[in-house]
Amino acid sequence: MNDVLPALLALAAAAAPPTWRYEVTWRPEGLAVVARLPAGSGRGLTVGAPGFVRQVSVDGAPTALADADCRRGCVVRLRFDLAASTDEARGFVGPARGGIQVTRPGDWLPVPARAPRDGTFALTVHTPAKVTFAAGLEQTPEGWRGPASLLADGPPAAFGPLDLAPLPVPGARRVTLALPRIPLAVPRSVVEAWVTREATRVARYFGGLPVPDLLVLALPVDRDDIPFGSAHGLGGATLQVYVGKDAPAEAFRDDWKLRHELVHLGLPNLPPRHRWMEEGLATYLEALLGADDEAALWGELAEGVAQGLPRGEGLDGTRRWGETYWGGALYWLMADVELRVASHGAKSLQDALQTLRAAGGNMTVRWPLARTLAAADAGTGQHVLNELHRAFGERGAPVDLEGLLKRLGVATSRGPAKLSAAAPWAPYRPRPPALSGDGGGATRSPARSR
Ligand SMILES: [Zn+2]
User: Fold this and answer.
1) Are residues 317 and 445 in the same domain?
2) Does any domain span residue 334?
């Protein structure tokens, strides 16, 4: 995998002038959208949520989006009923408090229905003083921007009374925590420290945060825990985390859900049939990167992956919970061990994932599985990820879990495992970074992974 070419292409895309320009004004009655689309934009426009679009005009004449003639370029104006559209999209953990409107720009920005989408877009947003706009897109002096091809599927953004805190995270251009201005049980510094700590943990493992720009949108709910999070990429990246208004400091200290969502940033969006690989990586690394007790980690991993053993058919396309989360975790764990054994401890899964990150393989893009695994395998000089996918994903080859744990020197019953240093693969047992003093590798010096 040549990783110079994608970098050059990304530079070229960044230098090109935006092809689609949008100017949006937030008003209590909704969004006023002005779109300037260049010649060659064809006939017919679409938006993600057409049911909330009102008063469309093209070059000053009222029309329907589907009938817009933009072959020689056009200026489109429309109103979007933001309040009605966000009322429909309620999370299953209950309504978020604080008067925040969570919305996808792709829902209200018109794009050509059939013309090529190979340029970039630029978006400027005007709001009254009390309303803040936050998005998981790249922010430049001329506004928010991203690839036009992904605008329709891009990550959620938010309007409302939000405080924005820039957080220092290694390898990232901009990480912003958006937190509604309502009282919480803990000082806001606890929330900021939690996001910074977990993002830094994940960034250290991947050789830098996997995505350049990240919005972490904290949504307060009427609870005393941290019930749920979700990760959204394509052209940018947003993590939505529901945070109990009454959650005590311990809930932030003990949380693993944000770490799980942050790990999702490290893989491209794969076709839906490989969802088990996305959830598996998040499940494996959420455990490994958060552990501060090796015996407890292996107790949890051994009990977990036993719920995900392939049942004689490939995991590709599975919808079963155990296979999706723990079968996937077993795949990445086995890859990590195989890479260490085959290289006598010189390489690990971390090398593969750092190389994938350097090649631009992260949640802001949509890649086929073959490209993803080839880019990651290039970091180790082996084909472990690809071969293991054939065995796991396509064939559902049986796994000798007992034998694997025995060779690693892991003996389990219930609770913490008993670990042996005398087992043949004990030196290749993946170790929590918090204990090994590096980014997760078993045998490397601490300096290398920082
Ligand atoms: Zn997940």
Assistant:
1) yes
2) yes
Task: For residue 10, tell me if it sits in a domain.
Answer: no
Task: Please check whether residues 171 and 92 belong to one and the same domain.
Answer: no
Q: For residue 24, list its beta bridge partners.
A: 33, 125
305-334: pLDDT as tens digits: 999 998 889 999 999 999 999 999 999 999
Ligand 1 centroid – CA 291 distance (Å): 18
Q: Per the domain annotation, does 40 fall within a domain?
A: yes
This prediction has a pTM of 0.92
Query: pLDDT tens digits for 289-307?
Result: 999 999 999 999 999 999 9
Answer yes or no: are the C-beta atoms of 311 and 318 closer than 8 Å. Answer: no
Tell me how far CA of residue 76 lies from CA of 2, 22, 70, 306, in angstroms.
Answer: 41, 9, 9, 56
Residues around ion ligand 1, judged by CB within 5 A, are 279, 282
What distance in angstroms lies between residue 278's CA and the mean position of ligand 1's atoms? 7
CB contact at 8 A, 131 and 212: no
